[in-house]
Structures are given as structure tokens and as C-alpha cells.
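Q: Given only this backbone (129 positions), what sequence would you predict?
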């Protein structure tokens, strides 16, 4: 009897974990043109939406996925606060803040694209410091 209850609980936990994974997303190369444009859009939109006066830049792509048969991209990004203001030029070459101003953030974004029109829509974003 105890083993049946343990098995049932194990299956329920496994089922809950499977539901937590976004369905239909598969791994893709981080270098795909549409994906990289979506990453740039997500970082730009993050900078537009935060109240910080300094810009954040991409440090690392942790996950790169797309939903099959669509132009939806799922990405986990690590970003760091720079010494440049949000609307300064060439943020990619801007140094990161150090010491008291140093800040890194990890975000998950879902971006919908229409590549033929270079149109992007941020569908979901979740960030943690």
C-alpha cells in the first residue's frame, strides 16, 4: 500500500513539473538571425521599461528556444548595468558598473516576431536581481 501511495505522489510531482515547462518550445542556435534580433529587442524593451537611469547590456544568453511553426522566441538572458545612460550610443562597448553601482539581472522573455516587417512584440518578461 505504501509503495502505491509513493508511486502516485511521484507521478503527481512529475506531472506538475512537466506542466511548468512551456510546451512546444525547442532549443535553437543562439546565432540565428531572427533570434538575435529578438534578443536585441528584449534588451532594448527592458531598458525602456525600467526606471533606472543607466542602461543594461547583454552579458550572456542562458537559453535560446523557439516555438515550433511560429515566430515565438523564448530566451533567458543575463544582463548587467553599465556606466552609460539609457539613450547613449554604442551600449555594447559601454563598461559595466563596478562596486556600489554594480547590478546584474536575469530575465526570461517571450518575444513574438514578424521578421518580414521587422516587428517585435514582448509577450512576457520576468526578471530577478
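A: Predicted residues:
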Amino acid at each position: 500500500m505504501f509503495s502505491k501511495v509513493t508511486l502516485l505522489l511521484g507521478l503527481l510531482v512529475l506531472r506538475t513539473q512537466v506542466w511548468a515547462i512551456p510546451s512546444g518550445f525547442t532549443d535553437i542556435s543562439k546565432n540565428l538571425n531572427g533570434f538575435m534580433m529578438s534578443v536585441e529587442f528584449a534588451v532594448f524593451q527592458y531598458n525602456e521599461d525600467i526606471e533606472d537611469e543607466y542602461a543594461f547590456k547583454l552579458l550572456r544568453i542562458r537559453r535560446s528556444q523557439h516555438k515550433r511553426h511560429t515566430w515565438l522566441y523564448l530566451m533567458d538572458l543575463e544582463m548587467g548595468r553599465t556606466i552609460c545612460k539609457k539613450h547613449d550610443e554604442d551600449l555594447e562597448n559601454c563598461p559595466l558598473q563596478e562596486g556600489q553601482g554594480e547590478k546584474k539581472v536575469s530575465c526570461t522573455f517571450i518575444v513574438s516576431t514578424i521578421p518580414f516587417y521587422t516587428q517585435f512584440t514582448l509577450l512576457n518578461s520576468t526578471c530577478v536581481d
